[in-house]
Every structure is written in C-alpha cells, then in structure tokens.
Amino acid sequence: MRPLEPIGPxxxxxxxxxxxxxxxYTFCTTCAFSHACLSEGYAKQxxxxxxVLVEHIGPFPPGRPIFxxxxxxxxxxxxxxxxxKTFILDDAGNEQVLGFHLPGEVIGLDAIHSSRxxxxxxxxxxxxxxRLSFPKLSLLAARMPGLxxxxxxxxxxxxxxxxxxxxxxxxxxRLAAFLLLLSARYxxxxxxxxxxxxxxxxxxxxxxxxxxxxxxSRIIRRFSSEGLIDIRQRDVQLLDRERLxxxxxxxxxx
Amino acid sequence: MRPLEPIGPxxxxxxxxxxxxxxxYTFCTTCAFSHACLSEGYAKQxxxxxxVLVEHIGPFPPGRPIFxxxxxxxxxxxxxxxxxKTFILDDAGNEQVLGFHLPGEVIGLDAIHSSRxxxxxxxxxxxxxxRLSFPKLSLLAARMPGLxxxxxxxxxxxxxxxxxxxxxxxxxxRLAAFLLLLSARYxxxxxxxxxxxxxxxxxxxxxxxxxxxxxxSRIIRRFSSEGLIDIRQRDVQLLDRERLxxxxxxxxxx
DNA sequence: CGGAAACTTGAGAGCCATCAACCAGTGTGG
DNA sequence: CCACACTGGTTGATGGCTCTCAAGTTTCCG
Lengths: 254, 254
What we know:
- 2 copies of one chain form a homodimer.
- With 254 residues, chain A is of the alpha+beta class.
- Chain A has 2 domains: 8-162, Jelly Rolls; 171-252, Winged helix-like DNA-binding domain superfamily/Winged helix DNA-binding domain (Arc Repressor Mutant, subunit A, Orthogonal Bundle).
- The first copy, chain A, has 8 helices and 11 strands.
- In chain A, the strands form 3 sheets. A 4-stranded antiparallel sheet of chain A has the order 1-8-3-6. Chain A has a 4-stranded antiparallel sheet with strand order 2-7-4-5.
- In chain A, helix 1 (32-40) packs across helix 4 and helix 3 (134-143) crosses helix 4 (145-164).
- Chains A and B meet through helix 3 and helix 4 of A and helix 3 and helix 4 of B.
C-alpha cells in the first residue's frame, strides 16, 4: 500500500510561503502579475505600485461562491491556493463547467468586455485569492509596458485554452488530455507533475469534458487496470506518461 | 421562386465604401479599432496615429492561406471583407475548425502570448484585411487609454466566444445556435440578420460544430421542412427566429 | 462537356448517455 | 455506539444519437 503523505494541491503552495510579509515584493510569486514584473526587472517603485493593488482575500471554504454570473466586474483575481471552478447554469438548472483554475492562474478575464461576469465561480476546496482592481491595473499598465504585455499575454492565452477541448474526440482522448494538462499546469507552479490530487469531483470532470460521470469512472478504471495511472480516490499518479500522451496527441498536438 | 439578388456577405460591405479615401478616418468603420476610437471621441492626431498603423492587404482569393500554424506573429488583422476560417491540423491530417471570422472581426489575438500563430487561417471567399502591427499598436495603446481598453475588450470577448459551443448539446441545438450567432454577427455589421450567405462549406460547419457533414445536411433539411429556415444552396433565410431561439436556448442562454 | 468537389440520402454500427442498483465514506442524531 | 440519511463514486444493462460507410445527385469550374 502506497503511503498517503500530503502532496500537490493538498499541501501548502511551495512558492507562497513568504507572500504575506508585506514589504518584500520578491516573494509573492504565486501572483502572476508580480511574477511578470519580477521577470522583467522593473524599478522598485513600479513593483510597489503594483503590489499596492494586490488585495489578499479569502479564505473561501469549499462550496462558497466567489462570484456569480451577471455580477458587476471590477477586478480580476489570481488564485493563491486551492481550486476555483467556473461554470454557467442554463435556465433548466443544468450546469456547464467551463474550467478549473489552479494556484497561479487568473480568473475573471472573460468579464472585461461586458463589465459583468459571464459565468459563476465557486471554491472547490479552501481558496485564497489575490484581487486586482482592473481599472487601476489598466492605468498602471499604460505606464508599464511590460505589465501591459503580460495582460495581453494572459488574455491571449485564455483564448487558446478553451480551444483545446473544443474538438470532437473520444472520451479516452479527452480524459488523457485532461490529466496531462493538469499535470503540466501543476508542474508550472512547482508541484509534482506525476502525482497530484483531483480537487474536483468526477461529476465536475465529466461535465467539463462533456461526458457522463459514469463514463469518466469507467475510463479511469480502464486507465488504472492498463497501468497508465494509479488512482486512489482523488489521489492520482501518472505512471505511463508516454502512452497517455500518445492517446491525447490529437488534442494536445504538441 | 425567390429572386437571388446579391445580399449579405456576397455584396460589398455597407460601411466600407469610403474606407480607401485615405485622409478621412471617419469612414473606415469596418475596422474595429478605428471604430473604437471614433466612438470614444479622440483627438484627430490620435486617430491619425492609429490610422497610419493600418495597412490594407489582400485581396486573398478563396482557398488562399492567410497565415499558418507556427508562423511568427507580429500583427493582428481585422477582416474588411469576406470570411476567414481558422483551424488546426493534427499530425494525422485531420482538420479542426476553430471559427469563422466575418467582416469587422479580428483575427490573430490568440497568437499574442506565444508570438506564434497557434492555428492556421485561410480565406473562404475573396478576403481583404486591415493589418495592424501589434508592437506599434501596443505602444499606441499605452498613450490612448480608450484603445487599450478596446484591446482588452476584444481579447476578453474572444475568450467567451469559444465557450459558447463548448458544452454538450444536441446537434440541432448547436446548428440553431450557429445560425443565430451568424445572424447576430451579420446584424452587428449592418447586414441583414434574417438572410445571408453561408460562406463556408457544410463540411466546415459540421467540423466546427463537432458533427458529421451528413448530420448537418439532415438537420438543415429538417429545419427547412419544418419552416424554420428557407435555404437554397448557401443562401439561407431565417423564417422562425422564435423557435430557433427556443432550440438554442441552452447554448445561447441570453 | 466532363470531371471533381460538394451535397444529399439511406442503412447499419458504435460510442456513449441514460437508467438503475449498489457501495463507500461522512456526518447526524438518537 | 449504531441506525440513518446523504453525497459521491462505481458497476451493469439498455437504448439512442450520431458517426461511418456507401451510393446517388447536384453544383461548380476548367
């Protein structure tokens, strides 16, 4: 039996440890914006101007709504810890899961153009956020070319993301792609790429991938019995990244 | 037999008539950026600065590639006339149609973050474009808050677009939604909302909606026989917008 | 006019959703 | 401490929507 020590998203963020120190901007690297500025080597006063915009909010307990479709938009947020699910409900009450946002990722970018949130968001586990007033951020971006570029990049990136799972592909291809994408996103934030916790329910995964929960369950079982993954509850380990990648190839492409 | 006078996207753009006059910036309204500035009431010198960035290119004949996946990105483009199809090919050669871009719409926004085009684009009919150097545009945006906002809005809008057809829904819901979306987009540019030409093939529509061409054909036939639409080849007329909207409700929602 | 491409129509198969039942973990209250 | 309800997950059987395959028809264009 494999030991179940705390791992991945269950544990503390590896980079967030010093982010509450207040004065030392160099360590709030879970926040994509600070990070952007750091990597561009800006003057300390600009960093300060940016950092003063950052408002740490939360924690949100599991299930707590973060914003609702139709809410007035005036700030974007970067996830510091936990997982945020975005979704929309049609008038029959059917949920459509748009995506999951991991630590270091930004939510609310799709709300800019209409000044209202086009979707709702809820915390899947204990979530803390960095809130950034968008008007103030825009103002600052006009003064800081690197920040403007970073915002453009973030927005641009999100366009491509939704296209990934847009195609028609088999259920197994989509699930393989989903796991590999999660892995890559965790890896990008300093978590283990081969072992992590699925912070979302099977039902949410299924909905997001346009599958029935039963189908997800069956495919997970199959992946597991074929030695592609090892999974206990929501603790998943990727054993054969090669074959997973081969499966997901038509979706991930590169 | 209904007469087949030239309509919609087949004819000249209703707003583009004077856009080649050079000095009078007030009439290049097919270009989303000029339009944005006009609506914000900018100083003439700013308009001039913007207009000097606009490079009219084309025409591209039907089938001509506009850019290819992997190409270096340095400019976005607004469609002046015609329809542009964006798509990606997996290594088996299977095409995945990401979207269609009508006059007034912008292409290339998804290329910003990686400085390479993540998809390919091809002209479906005779296409002319406004090319806008993105570095120069960014520079100008820092000086013109309204332009920066407009860019943010355009990018943000594109994020939402891809989410529309992301859900799982029946083939007839998706096709109804597709027709209504086209209608709204044509209407927004001054074309008839109830009658227009499908500038893309059934195969492309099918691919975009994750359906087989045969399925699209059958549903079009059904819509037609039920009096929802009247269609001759690619010339389509929406007859019962109400019922179409009712069908597409779970997708369009509002 | 001829050939290719696009579109349509029909028949059969397959993937996945649906329905239903069961199981496991968790929290609640008697 | 245990019965109970409840949520989330799993497993099995069945059916339907849509794809696939195949052939025929129309349109387009050299």
